[in-house]
Amino acid sequence: MKFKLTTILLVISGFITYAQQIGDGHAPATIADFSAPLKSGIYNGLNTTTTGMAPDNSNVWQHLFAARHISTINNYQLQIASSFAVNDRLFFRKIVAGDLSSTNTNWVELATRGLNTFNGNQIINGNVGIGISVPSATLEIKTPAVTGSETLLKLSVSDAAQDYIRIANGTSANNQFVPSLQGYRISDNRASLYLTAITEPNIDSGTDPLMTFDSRTTAAAIITRPLFAWDSYGNRKMILTANGSLGIGTLTTGTHKLAVEGSIGAREIKVQATGWSDFVFKKEYDLPTLEEVEKHIAEKGHLENIPSEEEVLKNGINLGEMNSKLLQKIEELTLYSIQQNKKIEEQAKEIETLKALALRIEKIEKELGQK
User: Fold this and answer.
1) CA of 132: how far to CAs of 17, 339, 350, in Å?
2) I need a labelling partner for 2 at 20 to 30 A (CA). Which of 43, 93, 117, 271 fits?
3) Can you say whether the dihedral through the CA atoms of 23, 75, 63, 91 is positive or negative?
4) With contact defined as beta carbons under 8 Å apart, do 94 and 75 qualify?
5) Is the Cβ–Cβ distance between 154 and 166 less than 8 Å?
6) Would residue 233 count as lying in a domain?
């Protein structure tokens, strides 16, 4: 576009340098058609009577500059047009016809200081700066400060113009910039923003993740601050800390890799244990007597090796460790039950012996009574 504008300016400069004054130096009042095989010169047009004018309706009048080929049997023209309005809009076109017809009559707007409309593909070799004179990237945008949150880029589609994605300043505070990627959707209730990583099936291998979220300093890993957070209108719902701990409903994870403020629902939970309580069944295990158990309960108010209510309220419990301790008590109860069962069986035998003895005595007494 810069090349086109430079070429046009050179043509105009050459024309001014070598051409003679046209009439009294003023364009004629109006002509009927800007697209007609005009002679080189300057013309006026009025949109109520002139056809082929540039698509700028900000004023009914337009200027036209035409440079015509020397041949009188064809229509090769370079035209530049602009309205009388103070809006800096400038249009050009090249009419190309080997006869006196008019072809290629669509106007192309030049980039000027005001509003511009471009049709067709635009190719730019080099960096583009918007709001900045020396861009350091292929596209660099510097948005002027405004009251509220600045928008740097906004993208939408013509058949759902109300939905868009934009890159904006996430804070309205002065002298601060928080980059924010926002997806806005009101055409229906589906997701407003998708972040999708895509690859081909033959690349679906290896251990590298398809999508990576990386929080870091410029040269090292984060040590103190949380890495990620999930919010809803400023209300924090979940965080991932620098040491890889996840907090759900809480900002404090303590020493836990997963900290949840609230209940957890699951079909199954597997705890990787470091030991189990089957040592109770070994011969060398010193099973406390029930008298010792009773004494400990009376003195401490809880079973031995089981935390008290005060300790549980203060420190909570380790699920794997507590299950092991509870199993230990169940196994001890099993041993007590076995011991008691043996005693019951012995007592049952003694009772049967006593019953037999009682019957013998009763029989002897009857025999003695008959004598």
Assistant:
1) 35, 91, 107
2) 43
3) negative
4) no
5) yes
6) yes
Edge-to-edge strands, sheet with 151-155: 151-155, 164-169, 179-184
Rounded CA-CA distance 229/247 in Å is 9
pTM: 0.61
Q: State the amino acid at position 171 in one-letter form.
A: T
Task: Check whether 72 has a pLDDT greater than 80.
Answer: yes
Task: Supply 95's token pair.
Answer: 């009419």
Residues 314 and 259 in one domain: no
Residue 281 has pLDDT above 80, yes or no: yes
Rounded distance between C-alpha atoms, residue 338 and residue 258, angstroms: 42
- Of 174, 196, 213, which closes a domain? 213
Section 166-192 average pLDDT: 93
Asked whether residue 57 is assigned to any structural domain, the reply reads: yes
Q: Say how far apart CA 17 and CA 352 lie, in whole Å.
A: 141
Nearest-angstrom CA–CA distance, 310 and 35: 96
Q: How many residues make up the chain in this entry?
A: 371
Please state whether beta strands 258-260 and 246-248 pair in parallel, antiparallel, or not at all (unpaired).
Answer: parallel
Longest alpha-carbon distance in the chain: 175
Amino acid (1-letter code) at residue 164: Y
Question: What average pLDDT score do residues 192-200 get?
Answer: 96
**Do both 43 and 91 map to the same domain?**
yes
Q: Distance (Å, rounded) from C-alpha 34 to C-alpha 43?
A: 8
E-strand stretches of 31-189 = 41-46, 61-68, 75-83, 90-97, 108-110, 128-130, 139-141, 151-155, 164-169, 179-184
pLDDT tens, 231-264? 999 999 999 999 999 999 999 999 999 999 999 9
Q: Which domain holds residue 312?
A: 278-357
* DSSP 8-state class, residue 203: G
Are 59 and 29 part of one and the same domain?
yes
Q: Which of 29-33, 114-118, 265-269 has the lowest mean pLDDT?
A: 114-118
Question: Distance (Å, rounded) from C-alpha 119 to C-alpha 136?
Answer: 27
Residue of 282, 245, 1 lying closest to 119 (CA atoms): 1
Give me the phi and psi of 180, to 5 degrees please. Answer: -135, 130
How many domains does the structure of the chain reveal?
4
On whether both 7 and 101 belong to a single domain, the answer is yes
Q: How far apart are CA 343 and CA 352, in angstroms?
A: 14
Q: Please, are residues 58 and 47 in contact by the beta-carbon 8 Å criterion?
A: no
Strand partners, 94: 78
DSSP state of 35: T
